[in-house]
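name: query_chain
kind: protein
chains: 1
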Amino acid sequence: MSSSRLYFIDALRAFAILMMLQGHFIDTLLDVSYRDTGHIAFKTWEYFRGITAPTFFTISGLIFSYLLIKAKHSGNEAMRIRKGLLRGLMLIGIGYLLRIPIFEWVFGEFNSYFLVIDVLQRIGLSLIIIVIIYKLTFKKTLLFSLLMFFLGLVVFMSEPLFRNLELPDTPLLIANYFSKVNGSIFNIIPWFGYIAFGSFISTLFYKYLKHPRFKVIIVSSFLVTGVLLITQSSCLLMQLYSATDCELLKEVAYYNYLFTRLGNVLILFALFYSAEKYIKQPIVLKIGQKTLSIYVIHFIIIYGSFTGLGLQQLIGKTLVPWQAILGALLFLSSICFIAFHYTKTNEFIYSCVRVLIDRVKRAVR
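structure:
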């Protein structure tokens, strides 16, 4: 992003990926007897873990859309679109690849669990959707901005309709993007809503970033909007329900985790952007630029991708709190060390996938 690089986004990505690492480690290995939701420490950990995915998805929408819009005005739009589509497809492919139980397949044991949707498929498909919407809006930034904001609202508001959705007659490859029945966590609804709001925010940064008072205004707006979403969004939804008698509004209000977590995300945006000059440290930015490599490495170590032997299988939920905390710190340090010294950037993963694709093409020929 050259002179207008949003450094706070790299720092926020670093924060989100580290929160994800420790969240997965502790959730996978902490003994179930210590999961006391009434305990302040566990409750605090659980709350912050709950806003990790919304933060990551919002960042993904923001950064991709920001680069896409910038590319239009720098003459690199076609390249950025092609790169975005390719990256989206690669993320989807990597997401499935990480769940393939190679040894089980070798011995003739097959199941459909590898078709479960996770973070990478969700982000990959979202990049493709953003490109399609951008093209449908005739590449008009204002129209794209308004549509993404409206789409985010619609997705959030329609969450109750998909909460217990079952699609028994739909192929699993498609059904898992919409239904949780088979184990998928990050379905297209409601999680695309965060990416849509991130895209909307990107248009604000693109249009007003160089305005002398932009930082003060946007930080204040993030804080005020975030607090209102956390404290008042449920009340507003109930007021709308009283005025319209729309049952859907009441269902959203009674289980209002989407808007409240968006409020948390906006507050994080405000804090990180206001402190940008203090957190713009090389090691922080480096972590933020290696999120894909870190994600892939951690997934293999914890969940035993390919081999079926990871910490989940070897240790299981057996750690006491002090062991889980110490282990999480060691785990974070080890993953970052591997990512720093054995991968260059996220591009390392993409280059490996390209090499694999090229080899398959040559084998087919």
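note: Residues 214-244 form the longest helix (31 residues).
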